[in-house]
């Protein structure tokens, strides 16, 4: 089919970007463990950009006709974007990165809240926390965008190529890898309202 090349280009290039993302996330975890926060930040900027590129190229899939895509879908088997080797490698790499980050916090004897309240005194560690949440945000953005593309091309209330309802993808869009980095924002807002040691 004439759109097969479009589909393969998007998916194969996505896997390359995702491979770079998890490779750089792994390198960042190692560097954080070694106390090389500057090098880790550089790797994390690259990993986040990889997810930006992976996400934005999903726009190309919406250039396929929903009806014509059905021809391509017949030969895809049971593959799914959430079965992507790149995504499967990125999640544990991000988990190791989170562990390394918390190790760095522990070495400075800081809680996450203290890091944010006194971030200017721990600039690189603060920047690292923000780089982690940016990576996490792009991972979630990819999930959301992937779900919307699937819904637009094959529908929201059908069975996907993986053999499960497309709605299942919709439930996964709320998943984040660094929940504590999202939760600390709630703590900071409460702290600010209460005026308890925020200065």
Output the keywords:
mainly alpha, 71% helix, elongated, 8 helices, 199 residues
Give your account of this protein's structure.
The protein has helices at residues 4-33, 37-56, 66-73, 85-107, 112-117, 123-154, 166-172, 179-194. It is mainly alpha-helical and 199 residues long. The radius of gyration is 20 Å and the shape is elongated.
Structural class: mainly alpha
Shape: elongated
Q: Which range does the strand content fall in?
A: under 5%
Compressed to H and E, one letter per element, the order equals: HHHHHHHH
Q: Helix amount, in percent?
A: over 70%
Largest sheet: none
Mean pLDDT: 91
User: pLDDT below 50 for ≥5 consecutive residues: which ranges?
Assistant: none
The termini sit apart by: 63 Å
Number of helices: 8
Radius of gyration, whole Å? 20 Å
* DSSP strand count: 0
């Amino acid at each position: 089919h004439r759109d097969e090349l479009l589909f393969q280009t998007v998916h194969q290039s996505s896997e390359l970007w995702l491979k770079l993302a998890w490779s750089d996330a792994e390198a960042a975890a190692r560097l954080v463990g070694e106390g090389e926060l500057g090098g880790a930040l550089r790797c994390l900027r690259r990993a986040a950009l990889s997810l930006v590129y992976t996400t934005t190229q999903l726009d190309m899939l919406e250039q396929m006709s929903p009806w014509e895509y059905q021809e391509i879908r017949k030969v895809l088997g049971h593959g799914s974007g959430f079965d992507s080797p790149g995504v499967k490698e990125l999640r544990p790499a991000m988990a190791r990165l989170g562990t390394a980050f918390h190790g760095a916090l522990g070495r400075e004897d800081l809680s996450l809240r203290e890091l944010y309240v006194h971030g200017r005194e721990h600039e690189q560690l603060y920047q690292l926390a923000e780089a982690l949440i940016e990576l996490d945000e792009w991972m979630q953005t990819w999930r959301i965008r992937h779900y919307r593309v699937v819904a637009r091309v094959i529908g929201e209330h059908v069975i996907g190529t993986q053999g499960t309802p497309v709605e299942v993808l919709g439930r996964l869009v709320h998943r984040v890898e660094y929940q504590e980095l999202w939760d600390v924002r709630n703590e900071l807002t409460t702290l600010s309202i209460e005026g308890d040691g925020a200065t």
